[in-house]
Write a structure and sequence with these properties.
The complex is a heterodimer of chains A (206) and B (171). Chain A has 206 residues and is of the alpha/beta class. Chain A has seven helices and four strands. Chain B contains four helices and seven strands, in the order αββαβαβββαβ. In chain B, a hairpin with a 2-residue loop joins strand 1 and strand 2.
Chain lengths: 206, 171
């Protein structure tokens, strides 16, 4: 099984993909093959939900639009219901008043789910270093990939999605979402010398 | 003072008498300073002015003067800690006018909601940011900050990064 999209370098589904899928179906009898097949399906059918609260959402629209066309990479269906999505893209400033909403929408998403934090505001609070702004959305939800920039180029977010697809393809175990979330949490919060003591966490999951 | 606003001020002076403490013009425009208790009377007189009725209350805002003396180095300190500014606009004559009133910390201001519907949210913003209460307001609660927030962020003693520093390295 190849890690990168075969055939067409732009990532379009080609005949080689279908052949690969057929081969994987033949290999399903081997141990571990089911997980590989599920991962392969998941990583090419990410459904993003944009949590757009500021100007980063405009760049997100550029990414989904026809000239850059995110659908080449299998993340085509941007849905606005969290029940239908598995990839949340936090694009914009999260105020303390908005934080409970973000947490609620994250919890409404079905497992397995991933989060990309897009832009300086979502990652660290950005230039809004004030009393009213959450200093990084990783204080309340586990983040898989951080995209720096103000606002990041759409290509940067696409790169994060490609990296995420790479990781989804290499995940071990189909149902490892809890462990994955814990890992993401530790990467995001502890990795930057923080502890999740925010009072917004009271009563939440995790 | 511009010629258009002059008759308005004359009529206001005849209506309110010595309740008008000061009339001056600066970068904002024309400012009429009245005592806190005569704000509703001044607003009502301006709203029902004969030739240019100030029928639109654009905004109400407040200023915290508590660090004015130390930050500017002036010896002249304002008469009280806070001042309210009522930003009035006359649609028919395209004129703008400010009504200014000083008040002490903890003093309640009279609400203007019975005169202008737009005073409702504007007074809630002032209450939220400065902690100034308005007597007679129908629904005085926070509008920007979360309901369980306990502070007044635009008061000078409030730290810019908030009282919960969110384990963030301070400057």
């Amino acid at each position: 099984m190849r890690d990168k999209p075969p055939g067409d370098p732009s990532g379009r589904v080609t005949l080689a993909d279908l052949n690969e899928a057929a081969e994987m179906v033949r290999e399903l009898k081997k141990p571990g093959a089911a997980a590989k097949f599920v991962n392969w399906s998941r990583k090419h059918s990410l459904w993003p939900i944009p949590f757009g609260t500021a100007c980063c959402a405009i760049e997100f629209m550029g990414m989904v639009g026809s000239s850059l066309d995110l659908s080449r990479f299998g993340a085509e269906f941007v849905r606005f219901s969290p029940r239908q999505c598995d990839l949340m893209i936090v694009a914009g400033t999260i105020t303390n008043k908005m934080a409970p909403v973000l947490r609620t929408i994250y919890e409404q998403m079905a497992e397995p789910k991933w989060v990309i934090s897009m832009g300086a505001c979502a990652c660290t609070g950005g230039m809004f270093n004030t009393y009213s702004v959450l200093q990084g959305c990783d204080r309340i939800i586990p983040v898989d990939y951080y995209v720096p920039g103000c606002a990041p180029r759409p290509e940067a977010v696409m790169y994060a999605i490609l990296k995420l697809q790479e990781r989804i393809g290499n995940e071990t175990g189909v149902l490892g979402s809890k462990e994955r979330h814990r890992e993401a949490w530790i990467r995001g919060v502890k990795g930057r010398g923080r502890t999740p003591k925010d009072r917004l966490l009271r009563g939440g999951g995790e | 003072m511009n010629q258009q606003a002059k008759p308005v001020i004359e009529r206001l002076k005849s209506a309110l008498g010595d309740k008008i403490q000061d009339v001056y013009e600066d970068a904002r425009g024309l400012v009429v300073r009245v005592g806190l208790e005569s704000v509703p009377a001044a607003l009502e007189a301006l709203r029902s002015d004969a030739s240019s009725p100030f029928d639109m209350l654009t905004d109400i805002t407040a200023v915290d003067w508590s660090r004015w003396a130390e930050e500017t180095g002036t010896k002249e300190s304002p008469p009280a800690r806070f001042s309210l500014y009522y930003n009035l606009y006359s649609i028919s004559s395209a004129a703008r006018l400010f009504v200014e009133a000083f008040l002490k910390d903890g003093q309640e201001a009279p609400s203007a909601t019975h005169l202008y519907a737009s005073a409702d949210w504007a007074e809630r913003i002032v209450f939220d940011m400065f902690g100034i209460r308005f007597s007679g307001h129908p629904d005085l609660r926070r509008i920007y900050m979360p309901e369980d927030f306990e502070y007044s962020p635009l008061r000078k003693e409030f730290p810019r990064r908030g009282v919960d520093p969110q384990d963030f390295p301070q400057e």
